[in-house]
Amino acid sequence: MLCEEREMAKKEYVPLFETRKVKGRILFRCIAASIFLGICFIIMYRIRYFPVGGKAERWTWIGLFLSELWFSFYWLLTTVCRWNAVIRIPFIHRLSQRFGKELPGIDIFVCTADPLIEPPSLVVNTVLSMMAYDYPPEKLSVYLSDDGGSNLTFYAMLEAANFSKTWLPFCKKFQVESTSPEAYFRTASELVNVQEWLSVKKLYEDMKMRIETTTKLNQIPEYIQKQHKGFREWDFVLSKHDHQTILQILIDGRGTNAADIEGNPLPTLVYLAREKRPQYHHHFKAGSMNALLEVLGFDANGGPSYMGSGCFHRRETLCGKKYEKNYKVDWKKINDKKVNESASFLEETCKVLASCTFEHNTPWGKEMGLKYGTPVEDVVTGMSIQCNGWKSIYLNPEREGFLGVAPITLLQNLVQHKRWVEGVLQLFFSRYCPLLYGHRKIPLKLQLIYSTHHLWAANCLATWYIVVVPCLCLLKGISLFPKISSPWVLPFVYVTFVHRAYSLAEFLWCGGTFRGWCNDQRMWLIKRTTSYLFAFFETILKLLGYSQLNFVVTAKVADEDVSKRYDQELIEFGAASPMFDILATLAMLNLFGSLGAIKKATMDADQDSKVLDQFGLQILLCLVLVTINLPVYQALLFRKDNGKMPTSVMYKSIVFALLACMLAMY
Fold it and tell me: Most exposed among 297, 392, 442, 610, judged by the fewest C-beta atoms under 10 Å?
């Protein structure tokens, strides 16, 4: 009888997703194998035709050979990780079929740190989009961690709580996909119910205007402060770095009053500004996330790595629990647990959990919660979870699950990437190196995936060599590649062309455009020669004890002119920075090198064919780099808007590039 029941259970069991092999996997493997063969021929050429002439020729040849070896190693690393790519096809309708009403409760965390860099109106849109998540509202709780401790952000949250009573039923009624009201009203083209659509839009715009007006004044009007007891907390705030815990339950999803305009329940909404004191380290974003915890592609290789946002975790994983084979969750038992205390009582009793001293002499930040001591707490925390035996699954739904906001100016983008690549490189040289920390805990391929991320910054040296040295050697008359007439030119041309052609095809297949791909190549070069370079050397300085860990919050807002240029796909420079000095100098260097090569080829008609034959690949490399840098030349020499390169950057780049060219020809 027991066996029959088990057989029936197996027949009734329906999977929640299906795993399929990625299309074109055989083609990818064939192309990868041919590229590998081409790389072998390139290595053979470098060894066989090692120059025996002058000292400069030998050292430049060795440097280029080492750069090519690094690129080959990094390509091999990424190719191995993609060898068995799979995709997951979810069956959402089966979720309720399997669990019925016993779905687990979900806590969604939103973090903000500065009301000037991350405006409250932007934070409100994020919170509202989370509250409108397609999930039973009584099982959904949204928490905002305000590390800026700003009453402006708190006021915006009160506005969001009120507007959600209209916005959530509107989203459900018209199946709104972009549940961020700012994004929805900016892009919505079909008005299913004009009167209701305009009414909700008017409510949103009025709310946005009130929030932005208050933010500009940097002060909450007295009549507003009298509307909620939470504002009294700021009477005791000394500064954003020195204040008590502020915890306010703005919507208590358990209460009968927590309902929208149609009588449907609302999700729980909580505002938290954890305690901060100058004498205690607050551990940046990781500390913020842990405070919230304390108060409530490469999928086939062992699971994707956790990097950034848009990720769901089981609470047990973040609390340091190790996976066990007999692990099973009784959702009914968990859902039956109810908290009967009032919201005001919970606010007071839970404040101690977000205090500065609560984590002292506890496993938080070490074995529990997000890990401290690194600006990329997401990466090391995700790897620790997987090392505890838990598996992760990557899901890329047709409808975007979340909408995020990223910096749209080039400088802020580079600053953000510098922080990321610096953080992961620090991990590689720490005890959290995936090849050491993950040894015998996670699959080797997953260790390699982490390593490709951790070694982003290390690409800067080889990239710099490829960008600078061939150009200078062209001016000096040193050939670094085989002649055009030589059969050895074939592997160089094949590897470069096929690798980039496949990249373009893949980009187009994923829904991109040719222009988007070109911009992607530009950003690839810009990041590797600027932010990755600074991240690499700053990491070295940290390892030597000459620099300290810091955390930079990047701006998520831009004025109207900047946004307009961004929509026109114009790169926003507009500020002086050492990164721009480097970028502009490298661009001018390759321009001068290309002009010098063209001059050398055209000065003497008899030597024209010989120059092109001997230096053809070097000239082509310089011309490709010039093409990639066209937006830089435009910003340096032709643009008149505020997004152009500063004049000081233009002068410095020309001087530095000319000096390098003269030294090369000396």
Answer: 610
